[in-house]
Amino acid sequence: MKKIATLCLFSIAWLVACRKDDAPSIRPIDLTVELSFDADNKDYGFPVENIEVALTNTNGGAPIYANTDASGAALFPQVNAGLYNISAVFKVSPAAYLAKTGVSVKDSVVFNAVGNNVNIYAATNISKVQLSLVPGKVGDWVIKQVYYAGSDLKDGASFRDQFIEVYNNSNDTLYADSLYISRLWGLQTPSSGYKYYLVNDANGQFDWTKSLNMPTGIDANKDYVYMRDLFMIPGNGTTYPVAPGKGLLIASTGINHKQPFTDDNGKDYSVNKPELTVDLSQADFEAYLGDAVIANGGNKAAYDLDNPGVTNLRVVKYDATEWILDNLGRDSYVIFKMPGGEDAGKLPAYNDPSITPPTATSKVRIQLPVAYIIDGVEVMPNDVSDLIPKKLQASLDAGYTYAPAGKYSSQSVIRKTAKTVNGRTILQDTNNSTVDFDYFEVATPLGFK
Length: 449
What we know:
27 strands
């Protein structure tokens, strides 16, 4: 009996010792974030001191902030184990940018550094994270609001009331003619288990170099994005002027979704709670797909209605029989114009690398040069466990935004107001949607936050 007791005590002591040995893997660690400028800007002599770095646990909670020293290092003492997003923003005034680079710019140049889903865990031996500050691309057009969540399935309008707003953030009149709007394609789930993603990329996105017939000699991942669908605002070049501080409302279906309607099959739809949805009958454009679907031998969606009072977008490429934004938040959005007014529909297109071998009916994704993009917004699911690989490069969007209540919540994401000058609202655009966007509890067409 004494032997058994001794053995039990020894076993307990061994287990306790093991726990003590394991403890360092979850203990807090001192984390250093080192910032430097990207290869194209590192020799200009921009200062790396006193740049604010934000560390945010992906499970929620307020960000932790620290400022860099003269070497560009920011120290975060005793960081608890977990997954973190790291971000930093550095703004250079036009005068300072000219003095350093010799290049004249109209507005401040914003550099972003970002690290997503960084595993801070003692067992991984990560105590230092190095990030590059990349200049963001600032355009006169911005994506102002995205209403992708939709409204209640029974009491609202479901996904039929979705819309996007684009906005003239400049001080000049712009012409919307030939402005393209697209959702991007990439992995729609976390990348674990996929064999065709970038193993050396923390985002885990597709490695497009592995796509069938992808040319060599190009950087298919860094210099391009791949489009899920594509629409264009029509016009002859001067048909649709947009004044400074004004925007365009682009509806999935341009009707008053607060009112009952009858679809093309004679089915009646009621709206029990009109306050949950929106009136899009005065939209500037709508994404009506019926004619394009029929022309390709398909059957149009019965509830994809064509309002003759709302101008139709030109359908370049569609992904389904109606324009339904992913209400889980797995789309990224871009607007762009083609140089010389070329047709974006004639750009090369490729199967995504997971399709092997592709068949005659496999979908292809149009390849768009990043250099053509005017603005982009990364949207993500509201649940951190559902976050997916980013589709946009950090130069276009260093962060992401989301509707906190998720699908069918009536919420939209809305770009924040930066300032008002002589009655004109100027929207915030640092190319980081995490800081540039807020949300409306109920989507508000043409509203401001």
